Amino acid sequence: MAEKPAKLRSRDWFDNLERMDMTALYLERFMNYGITPEELRSGKPIIGIAQSGSDLSPCNRIHLELAKRTRDGIRDAGGIPIEFPVHPIFENCRRPTAALDRNLLYLGLVELLNGYPIDGVVLTTGCDKTTPSQIMAASTVDIPAIVLSGGPMLDGWHEGELVGSGTVIWRSRRLLAAGEINEDEFLARACDSAPSAGHCNSMGTASTMNAVAEALGLSLTGCAAIPAPYRERGQYAYRTGRRIVEMVHEDLRPSRILDREAFLNAIATVSVIGGSSNAQPHIMAMARHAGVDLELDVWQHHGYDLPLLVNMQPAGKYLGERFHRAGGVPAAMWELLQAGKLHGDCLTCTGKSLAENLAGHESTDREMILRFDEPLQESAGFMTLRGNLFDFGILKTSVISEEFRQRYLNRPGQENVFESRAIVFDGSDDYHHRINDPSLAIDENCILVIRGSGVIGWPGSAEVVNMQPPDALIRRGIEWLPTLGDGRQSGTSDSPSILNVSPESAVGGGLSWLRTGDTIRVDLNARTCDALVDEAEIARRRAEDPIPPVPDSQTPWEELYREKTGQLGEGGVMNFALKYRGTSRKLPR
Ligand code: FES
Ligand code: MG
């Protein structure tokens, strides 16, 4: 075990002989629930448990239970647990979008970790943004921090078929539009997809971001994918509690773990697991808060050419239970490591290197986690694009169906190029009102475009780019049209979309001058996406047409968020916050 740090920061509160009056004041109220002054003044590390579970955060609610085992681990290793709530985030239910809450939880947790006598912290994660927000805060404060995932729900089954979180919604929506199921059946399928405590059981943003935490080296090996109700969950809660106490003694802070290579490992991992496109802004945000510069094309350079290895919805067939039984994240990363696609020497929260952690984690279920050289798909990562409509957009290629590839990507003489007529919607209400309007004459040669759905426009950026074609087209068997937008899409979506487009329409990005009827040319070899509108016409439209209006802010935070938050390509972070990295190096007044 490494040297103890000279002095734990909590000593400044609880053991400050120069300010005995303040020490008395700090101590007395903690004692009113039975904790003793001897404990608080014993020199043991005070370990925060950042509690993200609540009735309003059902995906993370398992942590209310798990925290008991985490406390046991902290106590057994000689620490003192102090549990406190963080701002709840519930992806599915929060209007206008849970994306607003990532930066809000971040701000709140920075204040808690910085302003209270906490020496190390267990970050309890689950639902999509509960992972990146807490990691961002841990980097800003830079005290020892470890991630405890809550784990996915058990697999959902409906009439003998696997139904995965979110994915079942998008698939049922198409069946409903085609007239193949009714509303009752839709609801039954959705409810059956959520059979237990836990977060989304598909490879949506929650499973992706917990895998990212593990790939970054911030959680114990094998932590991310254990289903919430499994016994290993409680056991990992205990071990995580034990380990954070040691990390405090080793002074193992996020700044020693989160370097560029750690983030490249995370990007490679997201690519082979068929992870969510939301990982793009979240990884960028975590990296920037950790002081790591990632270029906009990092996904193209370090993720695109990797194969799809994990056979999990939405890119594949199965769900979280089988993924865990097949070896989970370490088994997927083991494949990358053998193929020379990981930086194995990265230091992790275990105190060991990533390669040491992964030793012996080869999968034995080759239908679930495939070999690197016998994958589900080759080059199945994320493609980044640019053109006269935007400087940055991203396309998750692992979910593009074979039929879609045939139709759009391999037309004779125009390999990997398609030109489509743009149908432009101003936000999702406009889309829902007009998508079935026959006067738009939407056919298979169209691309559906949504604007006003970015960070500033929505505000927060909405998961709306996975627009489905008009009902009439679906009834004809056309389940997909290409889509493009300045919002995001759910990680559980199987839609071929160019999304997270930056700069967004609301700040004058190219989508602001685009008009229905314009031709959009996408060249996937050159990685470009352009409207075939000449410079003079663009200038004329820019001069004559106002930027399409967006709704007013409805709360004080929305207004402040809009004022402070940057574009999705750069992680949607509050840029002013970046300069505060490492606040724990100086004690608060
Ligand atoms: Fe919370 Fe998917 S809605 S994890
Ligand atoms: Mg989501």
Automatic annotation (TrEMBL):
Fetch the Gene3D superfamilies from UniProt: IlvD/EDD C-terminal domain-like
- Is Lyase set as a keyword in this record? yes
Q: Which Pfam families match?
A: ILV_EDD_C, ILVD_EDD_N
Lyase is among the record's keywords: yes
Mind telling me which InterPro entries this protein's record contains?
A: Dihydro-acid_dehy_C, ILV_EDD_C, ILV_EDD_N, IlvD/EDD_N, Sugar_Degrad_Dehydratases
Source domain of life = Bacteria
All copies of the Dihydroxy-acid/6-phosphogluconate dehydratase N-terminal domain together span 44-357
Keywords noted in UniProt? Iron, Iron-sulfur, Lyase, Metal-binding
Which residue spans traverse the membrane?
Answer: none
Ranges for domain Dihydroxy-acid/6-phosphogluconate dehydratase C-terminal come to 368-571
Family designation = Belongs to the IlvD/Edd family.
Which PANTHER family does the annotation name? HYPOTHETICAL DIHYDROXY-ACID DEHYDRATASE (EUROFUNG)-RELATED, HYPOTHETICAL DIHYDROXYACID DEHYDRATASE (EUROFUNG)-RELATED
Question: What is the protein name given in its UniProt record?
Answer: Dihydroxy-acid dehydratase family protein
Which species is listed as the source? Answer: Croceibacterium selenioxidans
User: What does UniProt list as this organism's lineage?
Assistant: Bacteria, Pseudomonadati, Pseudomonadota, Alphaproteobacteria, Sphingomonadales
